[in-house]
Structure formats: C-alpha cells, structure tokens
Design brief:
Strand content: over 45%
Largest sheet: 6 strands, antiparallel
Radius of gyration: 17 Å
CATH superfamily: Thiol:disulfide interchange protein DsbD, N-terminal domain
Shape: elongated
CATH class: Mainly Beta
Number of strands: 10
Structural class: mainly beta
Length: 146
Amino acid sequence: MIFIVLSVILHNFLFADNNEIAAWSYEVKKKSDDKFEIILNADISEKWYIYGINIEEGGPLPLNFYFEDSKNIRFLKEFIETETPQKLYDEIFKMNVPYYDKSVSFKAVVQIRNTQNNTLIIDGQACYMVDNSCVRVYQEIPIEFK
C-alpha cells in the first residue's frame, strides 16, 4: 500500500502539469515594421522555483527560450531577466545556481519576417521546495505580432 501511495506522489511530481508550476503571459511592443520587443512574464506557483537562464556548465538545465520556426525570427537582443535572480547552493551540482520564485519577467528584441504563426518555446527545469523534486518545464506559447 505504501508503495502505491509513494508511486502516485512521485508520478505527480515527475509529470507535473506545467500550468500548475507557472502561468506565462506576454506583451509585444512594436519598435518598427519588422522589430518587436517581447516582454514575457511568469507567475510561479507557491512552493515552486524555476532555475535561471544563466547557469554555469555542469549545473541544472537553464531556462531557455526559442522560436519553433527560427528561420522566421531573428533575435536582435536575447531574452534577459528584468530582475536579479535569487541564488541557492545546490548540493547535487555543488554550485550556486540562480532561480526565480513567485514571479519573473524577461525581455527580448526580435526581427520578424512573417508576423503570423510564431510559437515561442520555453524549456527549463523547476523544483518543488518541499522535497526538492525537479521536473522539466516545457511550454509552447503562440506569440501574436501586430
């Protein structure tokens, strides 16, 4: 019986719904006919944290942003954090790693060839503060450029 309960709990953490970890939203600001600023916001659920975008080699999976059709979009300025991430010492990786909890925003500037059918991929790792179990964060967000 204990094995079944532990299996269900482990399954829930390993395959957590990314919508339960963070709610993502965005704004697009037109800079010129083909240049846009993207502001990406994450509201992170209580007791969860997401690893940062600038992590040294040998650390956990960093947060990464890219477009499904990279031929259509060129980054003029890669995504950067608008706030300084917190840091924690990770016993597994034996290093200080940046992370975000509660909320975080990112900004990037892109040049677009076609303003339709652009999907932003968010890929990274999130951990649950209660037991430090970690899951992959993967979201696909259709971005509308107007």
